[in-house]
Design a protein that fits this description.
CATH architecture: Alpha-Beta Complex
CATH topology: Peptide Deformylase
Cofactor: Fe(2+)
GO biological process, one term: translation
Number of domains: 1
Radius of gyration: 16 Å
CATH class: Alpha Beta
Number of strands: 7
Structural class: alpha+beta
Strand order of the largest sheet: 2-3-4-5-6
Shape: globular
Strand content: 25-35%
Function: Removes the formyl group from the N-terminal Met of newly synthesized proteins. Requires at least a dipeptide for an efficient rate of reaction. N-terminal L-methionine is a prerequisite for activity but the enzyme has broad specificity at other positions.
Helix content: 25-40%
Family: Belongs to the polypeptide deformylase family.
Order of helices and strands: EHEEHEEEHHE
Keywords: Hydrolase, Iron, Metal-binding, Protein biosynthesis
């Protein structure tokens, strides 16, 4: 089922997500709905707070990045085949050079900015069968994970840009909060909640 994506300004996007118990009701369905919602919006990652659930859970599928002709064949292959559910993740390490990439967010439509993140991460998490895993990732996969991990910590990519850039996008962010932005996917805007 395709869920509405929560727009910028909603308090749920600022909460630190709660641990997901292994007996969480309908967890498989929640995960399936999150993938459906992400694909419907042409995203590469989606965190539970973005569908109104304050949980430590996110899903990723980097296959849309595999078409980037600037990447070598090995990187394209990695991106094409990376699809993963992260339940109760814990970032163990972020290391390596920081590098910039133009990021966007389904909760902040029509806003893209360069964000600097570490190139390599080590993360511990449970997969969708609740198997505990510890993995290392680098490059674009690490970046998408870091972006989604920020969501479950109540952090948005716009928090990581300069104050000048924040001033420049202020009007766009206000338009999202006012429900004046019209992405081609279902959204729930903070201003329209009470109506």
């Amino acid at each position: 089922m395709i869920l509405p994506i929560i727009g910028y300004g909603d308090p749920v996007l600022r909460k630190v997500g709660e641990e997901v118990p292994s007996d969480y009701p309908n967890l498989k369905q929640v995960v399936a709905d999150m993938y459906d919602t992400m694909y419907n919006a042409y995203g590469v990652g989606l965190a539970a707070p973005q569908v109104g659930l304050s949980l430590r859970l996110f899903v990723i599928d980097t296959s849309p990045f595999a078409d980037d002709e600037d990447l070598d064949a090995e990187e394209q292959e990695q991106l094409k085949n990376f699809k993963m559910t992260f339940i109760n993740p814990k970032m163990l390490k972020e290391e390596g050079e920081e590098w910039g990439f133009n990021e966007g967010c389904l909760s902040i439509p029509e806003v893209r900015e360069d964000v600097y993140r570490n190139e390599k991460i080590t993360i511990e998490f449970f997969d969708d069968d609740f198997n505990k895993r510890t993995e290392e990732y680098d490059g674009l996969i690490a970046r998408v994970i870091q972006h989604e991990y920020d969501h479950i910590e109540g952090i948005l990519f716009t928090d990581k840009i300069s104050s000048l850039k924040k001033q420049l996008i202020k009007k766009k962010l206000q338009n999202i909060m006012d429900g004046k932005t019209r992405p081609d996917y279902k959204m729930k805007f903070v201003a329209k909640k009470g109506r």
